[in-house]
Write a structure and sequence with these properties.
The longest helix is centred in the N-terminal third of the chain and has 20 residues. By secondary structure, the chain is an alpha/beta fold. Strand 12 and strand 13 form a beta hairpin. The protein has an 8-stranded parallel β-sheet. Strands 11-12-13-18-15-16 form a 6-stranded antiparallel β-sheet. The chain is globular. Helix content is 26%, strand content 21%. It has 11 helices and 18 strands. The N terminus is likely disordered. Helix 6 crosses helix 7. The structure holds alpha-D-galactopyranose. The site of alpha-D-galactopyranose has 9 residues, from loops. Alpha-D-galactopyranose binds next to loops.
Length: 421
């Protein structure tokens, strides 16, 4: 039975007649919602308390990936000792998707490249004690591959990823015309959180919209620049342009200065994948690059073909003392404290009160460089002990300063500890 309420009919304008009191109430409610929508969004997923470590398929293989190559990388990390060194996430970058969604609108893996499907790949990786990462894009299409992006499908895609067992999601920024970056990434972040699965969220909008100012509330790491390239300083012609222009690692390094204050446990600046082991860098340059990424508290995502790397490259990726500095629990990103011509000193504070320092020679000739007690904020002379972390050697007291040979394009990395620090 339908009952009709019989009473005094309200005049049509009744909705719009406000007393002074009701207007005050409405105003307060409006203020509350405005505050909630601007500040209320926060990420507290408890993940990435230190910068994420792992391997990403992009630099080695670009779109030419398949489940065999990903499994081989996972096997290598699990059996070579890299897992024990902290490498954990195996991230499948662009190239995994079919060109069309299925009848239910779900993303589908390319059946030729991933015949067993993504869930089976995730299981394989989990069975080896590792974690699984996947790529999508905030726009209508992924970068480079022409596959569908997640725009407008965030909830379904996040649910699909969670069902497959994804532990890390990288979301790129191609084909995003008309989108506001913060809103778009918040949409995916909410969708991930709604699944209830702990998923590290990696924003990849290349620093175009100054994500360091807002992304700590949205994700666990955010790219600060366009793509890195395996060259010393190429890409000068595009370095000042926004977006995914590739550039050499020293240019990416320079772009990190000034962003230190925004990084910390759970939220990291991401200067892009490691270029260690790619053909465009010498071993010396690769060692410098790895040292400086550790000073920056950068994510350490190896991205070469691990199964083909020579021992000199493996020794870089596996230096546990350098990794220990990158993963230091204080989570404080370091910076450049001095630059004399081509000779720079970069310093990072550590949880135990000590500091890590890199003596970096951008020049083309070998030099002797000196780090003084003042460079690291100590008095004129210090009894602090110096340790060379690449050579695994204690080098005695710092005194007024410590001098050492630094090869062309090379770096010496030190850990300095002592009472009074
Ligand atoms: C962009 C990203 C890269 C990589 C490629 C994939 O360029 O910045 O890191 O994911 O897309 O196409």
């Amino acid at each position: 039975m339908i009952r009709f309420a019989i009473g005094k009919a309200k005049p049509p304008w009744a909705c719009c007649v406000f007393t002074k009191q009701s207007m005050r109430g409405a105003f307060i409610i409006l203020l509350f919602f405005a505050a909630a929508s601007s500040q209320g969004f926060a990420l507290d997923n408890g993940l990435a308390s230190t910068p994420p470590m792992g391997w990403n398929s992009w630099n080695a293989f670009q779109l030419a990936i398949n489940e065999g190559k990903i499994r081989a990388a996972a096997d290598f990390i699990a059996t070579s000792g890299m897992k024990d060194d902290g490498y954990q996430y195996i991230v499948v970058d662009a190239g995994w998707k079919s060109k069309a969604r299925d009848a239910q609108g779900r993303l589908v893996a390319d059946p030729a490249k991933f015949p067993s499907g993504i869930k089976a790949l995730a299981d394989y990786i989990h069975d080896r004690g590792l974690k699984f990462g996947l790529y999508t894009d905030a726009g209508s299409e992924d970068c480079d591959s022409g596959a569908p992006g997640s725009r407008g499908h965030e909830e379904l895609d996040a649910r699909t990823f969670a069902e497959w067992g994804v532990d890390y999601l990288k979301e790129d920024w191609c084909h995003t015309e008309g989108l506001d970056a913060r809103t778009a990434y918040e949409t995916m972040s909410r969708a991930i959180q709604a699944t209830g699965r702990p998923i590290v969220f990696s924003l990849c909008e290349w620093g175009d919209n100054e994500p360091w100012l807002w992304a700590a509330k949205v994700g666990n790491l955010w790219r600060t620049t366009g793509d890195g390239k395996d060259c010393w300083d190429c890409g000068g012609e595009t370095a000042s342009k926004k977006g995914g222009y590739p550039r050499g690692w020293t240019r990416i390094l320079d772009a990190q200065i000034g962003l230190e204050q925004y990084a910390g446990p759970g939220h990291w600046n991401d200067p892009d994948l490691l270029l260690v082991g790619l053909p465009g860098l010498t071993v010396e340059e690769a060692r410098s690059h790895f040292s400086l990424w550790a000073i920056l508290a950068a994510p350490l995502m190896a991205s070469c073909d691990l199964t083909a790397m020579p021992p000199a490259i493996a020794n870089i990726l596996k230096n546990e003392e350098v990794i220990g500095i990158d993963q230091d629990a204080l989570g404080q990103q370091g910076t450049r404290v001095s630059a004399r011509g081509a000779h720079e000193i970069w310093v990072r504070k550590l949880k135990d009160g000590g500091v890590a320092a890199v003596l970096f020679n951008r020049g083309k000739t070998n030099v002797v460089m000196r780090i003084s007690a003042q460079d690291i904020g100590l008095g004129h002379s210090s009894t602090a002990q110096v340790r060379d972390v690449w050579r695994h050697e204690n080098r005695g007291q710092l005194g007024a300063g410590y001098s050492t040979h630094v090869p062309a394009h090379g770096a010496v990395m030190l850990r300095i500890n002592g009472s009074g620090m």
